[in-house]
Structure prediction request, 372 residues.
Amino acid sequence: MTESLRHSGEYEHAHENPYGNPYQGAQQHASSPVNPEWPPPPAQPPAGPAQAAAQPGQPGQPEPPAQSEQRAQSEQPEQPRQKRTVRRGPAALLAAVAIVAAAVGGGTAYGIQELAGSDTVVSSATSTNVVPSSQKGTVSGVAAAVSPSIVEISAASNAGSSTGSGVIITGDGEIITNSHVVSGASSVKVTTSDGKQYTAQVVGTDSSKDLALIKLEDASGLKAATLGDSDGVGVGDQVVAIGSPEGLTGTVTSGIVSALDRDVTVSTDEGQQQQQQRQGGGWPFEFGGQEFNGDTGSSTTTYKAIQTDASLNPGNSGGALIDMNGNIIGINSAMYSSAESSAGAGSVGLGFAIPINTVKADLPALRAGADS
Prediction:
């Protein structure tokens, strides 16, 4: 790549004739004998000091044919060097393209985000690598790559306050979380992984899917998460969960996908949600006809969930479930607790997340201000 196209010795006779004429000896008169194997030289080649000095006889006198033929053959450019020069240009170009392609392949998601703008959601297949190749497949690599995109949410209402988590999806501060985290909130405060605090407004909620979209005020340059493809998730896949359980910002846990398409039923009643917020316990849900972590109330909704054994605790709601490439595959929403009281809830390895494809499908309605 760093080699010059001109090789040493390639123009070693340039001092004799800078115009590259194979007849670098004396000028020949039009009537002089010519070697039939060579085409005739230009009628009036440019004259120069080097050319004049190379003539053995008087100006205008032709060389004998034998000397002219010998001189032309000895000064003929080396054909192999010319061929190598012709090939080297395309070879260098192909090498450059390969290097550029490798660079783009290593940073696809980032490049898309930068080119598309800060208000564009980054979406990809699960094969996209957000984690640097040197840390691919490690929990620490996933945590380092994705933690800047996870926030802590503090919501205050007449019933009290609650803490949850959220996922940044655009550089200007759009954040996905659970509906039950911000439902009925009179004010919402968000803390990013670097400790900065923002005021947020609720843009739209969808209690039927337990999803909400909030927007930070005066935010820019945030690191948006890459939304993966939950249809490509398989049972046994390794996953990482990041959130703020019990207000412990940026807590990282790991596990596997335990099951898919679990029918999880949660409450859509705002009063029921506020009651749980006051108690500070886990979010109540139903599964298999049984209630867990408290009473779900009379108004409920059911959605298909990803089950994981990654540790989830109160405060993880709205946080991220992430594959080992660093793509968000789910929004954590519910957890099972064996405690009789939700106030003593703790993880026993039964957590549930809303598939990210459900989130992507619902995003246009949330941006339009859905309130259900």
